[in-house]
Amino acid sequence: MKIYGDIISGNCYKVALTCALLEIEHEWVSMDLLKGDARTDEFKAKNPNAKTPTLELDSGQTLWESNAIINFLAHDTELMPTDAWQIGQVQQWQFFEQYSHEPFIAVARFINKYLGLPEDRKAEYESKQVGGHKALQVMEQQLQQTPHLIGEQLSTADISLYAYTHVAHEGGFDLSDYPAINAWMDRIQQHEKYIGMEK
Ligand SMILES: N[C@@H](CCC(=O)N[C@@H](CS)C(=O)NCC(=O)O)C(=O)O
Distance between CA atoms of 153 and 159, rounded to whole angstroms? Predict the structure, then answer.
């Protein structure tokens, strides 16, 4: 299988990390998003939404949306529960990630780290801080109670939220007031098959 991605993107890193933890063989097709690699007609034939990550199976079938990809890859593995309630919890955290976490933390990081915090986006950057901290507080509250987001088990919910949380400081978020999040990030980093964002 091929994975089209740019490793500087947390959404793409989720897929790289899942493959590493599960030792899934794949070809990583490196995309340069800042140069517009995702916006070519050739790429849009694989993903009409023109975004990475995108998974392409040997059959030619393609799958996009990072959380859908990692759940597909983790099906029938230790990273994906089989119990319906726990699957619901995984999805709960992943929908939370896409609506209440990524749009604040990932966007603030992009504006700061990749655009160099230009004057005309400063107000937008500032406005992302409140929502980002709100999401971090929700995670902190859960992780004060359980070692991972759905309980004892490491799951794709943790991978989805770890991706942009561990680089949140690049978006101006000080994580020092979130001890349970820090302990959770340490636990993930100690996994014997862990890889960082630099592939
Ligand atoms: N909801 C999507 C978001 C994907 C997304 O926004 N990808 C960005 C990189 S983080 C992208 O490929 N942008 C295309 C571009 O910059 O041209 C997911 O989780 O996969």
Answer: 12
